[in-house]
């Protein structure tokens, strides 16, 4: 019986990490449904981008209030995780405050965790107020209705509860230390929770231990649950922001990729020695489709983008089309891509590893042509994203599908393209009049 | 270009005029102003004239990759045949396409926007400017998306405005956060989708908040959109929309 709690802890830990591993596997399987793309170039620049944008939060602070509060929660999250290491080891070994022999260092560590914890509570509360009381415009857009809004709040509640449990645990511990309870040797400094301790005055040692243990257990179980909540939530960005910034676009934002398949066709057309009557070889592959109508037509980096999106809405807030009341919202493009990808993933799971046509696709099923045609390709969304997501590339791939596979461009654009084809300009002017300006006064 | 080539001469730079600069009545004035400046600075330049064709930018951004690459292949053939090394253009869309998207298709050139080119002409003292007519005027500058965010060119146009001794006032959304005029991505050639407002009106309102006498632009399409916006607000008597080349040319009293 002596080791009951250790065994129980190990079981909980293995279950938590096991489920998480299963989720990671699914996530990576889904991302790999995307088309292959070579991003092995410029590794040093990529590491630099990751260090600056993800680790250094450089783009978060473009909006100073949200950026500052986010840094508190981010630093809190990373630093307090050191304490989680101690908690896990204590749980496995049945020790209490294993790192206590570190002495002054330990005092400083616990002290800083406590200060960060209270700062996180303050930041998270302000975040909640921004979403629910001030109702900042970008959190109120149509795509945020329902689950996305609940998801955002739920994350804040979980963080609030975890931090409160952490401080309660320490407060009870501090009180027990003062009372000289066995196993509760004096260790750590408690700049915040010492103010919670008076609440416990008059309680017996045994009920205090119950409080301390309960907070300890719920705290660590809560962390494991939160870890597994990530897969079902926008909160995946805490992990994926790192690879996503690493794989982010390195070329100028205005440079859109050229399709190699089209280059090959154009070359063939311009090659005077090409056989105009050549038929494709018997065993030739079916020609690839142009552009994207579903998630599997996108690249795996674009799919990684969609899972990384944390729905902050800075892209949509900066989008000129959205600002002027058009249906387009770059955030919705990312959310739709992720939701469709999740749907495809579930379909594969339900059908023993193969995708069975469900009669749906990203285009029309999630994203309408009206949204796609409202984009001015101005790159404001790409610039605004704090984690290097490129919604514009998805819009462009889907436009390409509409035009090259379905000939479904708006009439005005068809006229424009007809003009370019016939007379080399988007307007119906004669090519031979190109130099007329030089002769005019 | 054909004539120079036949005479065995090679110009310092090829001026890529672009479709707007060749055909649009308003943009042709920008073309002429820039040519005056090139002449003033004794720059030997050439144009492709009737051998120039649309870069394919609006086709690509509409999703017609095939038409884009056909245009690119044709233009690259022409320019490579003439051995072109350096290109200057007054259109940020042409600038972006030739600079970024042509190299992958075999067209490698040094490409600069006309504001960058004019800045180097000033730096090399090939053109100079005395105070002139814009002294103390309130000028706000609209960043074209394909020059600014797309290619990180923010300073060259601003430095030119400062040379006018004018008062440069920034809009609330500028540089990296500059708001689009509404023309990019081939929107110029279609009606906007349903919404509460046209983008150029929103941008014009931002510009008007700075109480400018002049809205400066560096793109023929932005110029059109802002001019329409100013007309919509019935302010065309009070606010002029001008390209930076036009500002410099008229300040230099050309």
From TrEMBL, chain A:
<keyword id="KW-0812">Transmembrane</keyword>
<keyword id="KW-0411">Iron-sulfur</keyword>
<keyword id="KW-1133">Transmembrane helix</keyword>
<keyword id="KW-0408">Iron</keyword>
<keyword id="KW-0004">4Fe-4S</keyword>
<feature type="transmembrane region" description="Helical">
    <location>
        <begin position="109"/>
        <end position="130"/>
    </location>
</feature>
<protein>
    <submittedName>
        <fullName>(Fe-S)-binding protein</fullName>
    </submittedName>
</protein>
<feature type="transmembrane region" description="Helical">
    <location>
        <begin position="151"/>
        <end position="169"/>
    </location>
</feature>
<keyword id="KW-0560">Oxidoreductase</keyword>
<dbReference type="InterPro" id="IPR017896">
    <property type="entry name" value="4Fe4S_Fe-S-bd"/>
</dbReference>
<dbReference type="Pfam" id="PF13187">
    <property type="entry name" value="Fer4_9"/>
</dbReference>
<keyword id="KW-0472">Membrane</keyword>
<feature type="transmembrane region" description="Helical">
    <location>
        <begin position="214"/>
        <end position="232"/>
    </location>
</feature>
<feature type="domain" description="4Fe-4S ferredoxin-type">
    <location>
        <begin position="300"/>
        <end position="331"/>
    </location>
</feature>
<feature type="transmembrane region" description="Helical">
    <location>
        <begin position="6"/>
        <end position="24"/>
    </location>
</feature>
<dbReference type="InterPro" id="IPR009051">
    <property type="entry name" value="Helical_ferredxn"/>
</dbReference>
<dbReference type="InterPro" id="IPR036197">
    <property type="entry name" value="NarG-like_sf"/>
</dbReference>
<feature type="domain" description="4Fe-4S ferredoxin-type">
    <location>
        <begin position="365"/>
        <end position="397"/>
    </location>
</feature>
<feature type="transmembrane region" description="Helical">
    <location>
        <begin position="65"/>
        <end position="89"/>
    </location>
</feature>
<dbReference type="InterPro" id="IPR017900">
    <property type="entry name" value="4Fe4S_Fe_S_CS"/>
</dbReference>
<dbReference type="InterPro" id="IPR051460">
    <property type="entry name" value="HdrC_iron-sulfur_subunit"/>
</dbReference>
<keyword id="KW-0479">Metal-binding</keyword>
